[in-house]
Design goal:
Elements lengths: L16 H15 L11 E6 L5 H12 L3 E4 L13 H11 L2 E5 L3 H10 L4 E3 L7 H15 L6 E5 L4 H13 L2 E5 L8 H10 L6 E4 L2 H5 L4 E4 L11 H8 L6 H4 L7 E4 L11 H4 L6 H19 L4
Parallel strand pairs: 1-2, 1-3, 3-4, 5-6, 5-8, 6-7, 8-9
Helix pairs in contact: 1-5, 1-12, 2-12, 3-4, 5-6, 5-12, 6-7
The structure holds phosphoric acid mono(formamide)ester and norvaline.
The site of norvaline has 9 residues, from helix 6.
Length: 307
């Protein structure tokens, strides 16, 4: 049963475990070539205040595969870029569009947009979360391990949007996750506590400053850029602080011998990940990127009520 029709997806915590599994099942069917009920005449808006390759293109192709149309609405081409208030923009776009994917800075902006608009609003990345990324990540984990529950992941680097959605997503599906960050770059206490509260008995959700203990026995090593969009000015000062958290061959050797490596991309070779690991045999990053398309096609089909 589709319980996502008409709903906003602003956080990974908006899903139940059953909803995640249903989405991943549908995504796998699409990946295997199963056709979908179509959405002719339905329009997806992409309101992106930050750059994007994967999210923009995979959402667009997913909507086209569903037979719908896509409108690119970056603030440079709409009046919001000249100061039109968010509530006004949301109420107007709601009269035209069927679903909106929004990428911006403040989580409060996607929350406010969803309050002012009746159509489903999907978080396509904020400073706080990146739930669509984590749906694709979980699909990749399932492909590699056959199951999600009990799989052990280590995330190394910044306690950022991706780490937050991973914390919530792993907790929901019963994957143990250790997030290892430099001392001044932890995930927020609120998200960490929420993830720990969501985790069932036996699922360990941990934050540490020690990269080596984090990767011990890990079946997945995951990293992301050290300075996210909007933090570029801090990049140079962050590099030495984050260096011990780089995923390289030395660190990878301390993980489970069969461990896979994930990265949401774009990657910064020589910073958060070495060239040899990114391009090595344990890397699954290109499958992971492909899975954005299948996971989001499933998400769109469900929020639009097509299935
Ligand atoms: N991983 C990800 O969201 O990539 P983009 O910024 O290119 O969309
Ligand atoms: N944490 C990164 C993710 C990019 C997909 C950022 O927000 O820039």
């Amino acid at each position: 049963m589709n319980t996502l029709a008409g709903r906003d997806i602003l956080s990974m915590a908006d899903f139940t475990a059953a909803e995640i599994h249903a989405l991943l099942d549908l995504a796998r069917q699409y990946k295997q070539g199963q056709t979908s009920p179509m959405a002719p005449g339905r329009v997806l808006g992409l309101l992106f205040t930050k750059a994007s390759t994967r999210t923009r293109v995979s959402f667009s192709v997913a909507m086209m595969r569903l037979g719908g149309q896509v409108l690119d609405l970056n603030p440079g081409v709409i009046q919001m870029g000249r100061g039109e208030p968010l509530p006004d923009t949301a109420r107007v776009l709601d009269r035209y569009l069927d679903v909106l994917a929004m990428r911006t800075f403040a989580q409060a902006d996607v929350v406010a947009f969803a309050e002012w608009a009746d159509m489903p609003v999907i978080n396509a990345l904020t400073d706080q979360e990146h739930p669509c990324q984590v749906l694709a990540d979980l699909l990749t984990v399932q492909e590699c391990f056959g199951d999600l529950a009990g799989v052990k992941m280590a995330y190394l680097g910044d306690g950022n949007n991706v780490s937050h959605s991973l914390l919530l997503g792993c907790a929901l599906v019963g994957m143990s996750l250790t997030v290892a960050t430099p001392p001044h770059h932890p995930p927020t206490a609120e998200i960490l506590q929420k993830a720990q509260a969501l985790a069932s008995h036996g699922t360990n959700i941990i934050h540490t400053n020690d990269p080596e203990s984090a990767v011990r026995n890990a079946q997945i090593l995951y990293t992301d850029v050290w300075a996210s969009m909007g933090q570029e000015a801090e990049n140079q000062e962050r590099i030495p602080r984050f260096q011990p958290y780089q995923i390289n061959e030395t660190l990878l050797q301390k993980a489970d011998p069969q461990a896979i490596v994930l990265h949401c991309l774009p990657a910064h070779r020589g910073e958060e990940i070495s060239e040899a690991v990114l391009e090595g045999t344990q890397s699954r990053v290109w499958d992971q990127a492909e899975n954005r398309l299948h996971a989001q096609q499933a998400l769109l089909a469900q929020v639009l009520g097509l299935v």
